[in-house]
Amino acid sequence: MSRIANTTKSVLLEKFTETATLSRDAATSGGWSYPLLGIVYFVSHPSLYRAVAPIIIKCIISALGITIGLFVFTYIPQVAFCALFSGPFAFITAAVMVLGEAYAIILVLSKLLFVGQAQDEIFDAVLLQQGNEQLVSRGREVRSSSGIKKLGKSITLAKPLSRFSMKGILRYIISLPLNSLPIVGTIMFFLYNGVEAGPGFHTRYFQLKGFDASTRQSFVEKRRGAYTAFGATALALNVVPIIGLAFGFTSTVGAALWASQLEKKYGLTKESGHVGAAQRLPEDEVRVEL
């Protein structure tokens, strides 16, 4: 028994150390800032938010119905469950769990019914606005007319790229009970899922770069803290009641801004698969119509 206890203690200590190290790297990486920068960029560029406004409205209406339904039918039972772990904080932790469950349902439905290729087009649009035309041209036609650049049809996307996997959804659902632990559990929940969610926002970037599975894994591992921070922040925004899916678009914008910065910083290295120097164009020379 003592041997089993020592082994268990050793494994838990190792996991705790790994989590602490990842948390520190995530906090100092700056990756958390890009979803926030994406919000500012999105609202300051009418060509982006006007293009997806109809989709966002549909998502908000659906999210409203799903969130209200879950609170009506599942909130009280989850308060009783959370009371076992968080005592007087049960009403808060149960609300976080319900919002998390609502997000999982809304995410799947929106991907199937509403979002389609919009996120990939938004990603390409921001890269184009940042002057990465040669990179975007690897996967999409770029048309020019009277000094104005516009996105054309996709060369590589027969269907929308998946930014979430069944593994990621199961990981998310299994970890939802962590929210029953006040503050610490919620932080662990976001970090745990951020590990998987972060790289998903660069799925299109990896495709445009021509990365194979091995190159992608190596690229992500070198920036694991930054991707975890990005994923955790994006997920925290996504679970905001009702309007969370709108933040899915702003986080996509943030991911494109980050990709552009990576191109500028590592663009001349062999690892990057670089195709040309990026020169940001004046706003009046870029028009994106999705």
Automatic annotation (TrEMBL):
The keyword Transferase does not apply. It is found in: Membrane. It is a multi-pass membrane protein. Keywords: Membrane, Transmembrane, Transmembrane helix. It comes from Tricholomella constricta. Signal peptide: none annotated. This is Outer spore wall protein RRT8. The chain crosses the membrane at residues 55-76, 88-109, 169-192, 226-259. It comes from the Eukaryota. Pfam families: EI24.
